[in-house]
Amino acid sequence: MTAETTKTEPHVVHATCRDGVDEWHVECRFSDGAKFAAVRVSYNGDNTALFLAEALPRCTAEPPPVALETVTSGGLTDYVVTAQASDGASVRVVVEGDLPALACRVTALLAARQLAGRVRLYVIAEGTAGDREDQGVPGVYGVEVDAGLDAGDRASAALDIFHENVAVGTLDSFTFSVADGDGNRLVEGDAKGYSLGHRGMFTGRVADADVPQEPSRMPGR
Questions:
Q1: DSSP 8-state secondary structure symbol assigned to residue 208
Q2: What is the pLDDT of residues 77-99, one digit of tens each?
Q3: Residues 111 and 30 placed together within one structural domain of the fold
Q4: Could you tell me the residue range of the domain that residue 79 belongs to?
Q5: How far is CA 100 from CA 15, 53, 74, 125, 131, in A?
């Protein structure tokens, strides 16, 4: 079925993500004052729910109609969007409340995200551990961030992702920087701290042989 959008459908002005056990809910506040969990996401391994919560309030243009799977429940039509996560997993998104335009926006956002893909960056932790618990911190770590981000936000996202996955007892003992695949250092953008951690994924410590070569800047080079 092709979703027919209407000009009278309210748009999302604010959204937040609520974690669940088997699915994640995107609670939306609409321009008409309504507020409910209009979007359910079956898989959040690549932070799809958080991505939608951030992107939907910014997406106000009238979306093109697209063919969508529909489910009727309680006299209302729910729309089902199926996409592929960046890690290859299948993502099923259900848009509730007979909101075809919202379903089309979700479809467009997920398609654009998949098309843009992700870029690999490296977080470089340098310094001397002052605490025993920080002995294993120094090194180079791999992250993948959304390619749609600009260079500054890519760096900010990479650092947010790193700190969400690597415990550091004393931050002042280290310096943290971000490099691209050519070894070029990236300068952080103006994003607020820990606001972009959902725009990518952590891939772990990088073996020496896989670290991009930049002899004058990379640790141990």
A1: G
A2: 899 998 877 667 788 999 998 89
A3: yes
A4: 12-115
A5: 18, 17, 16, 46, 55
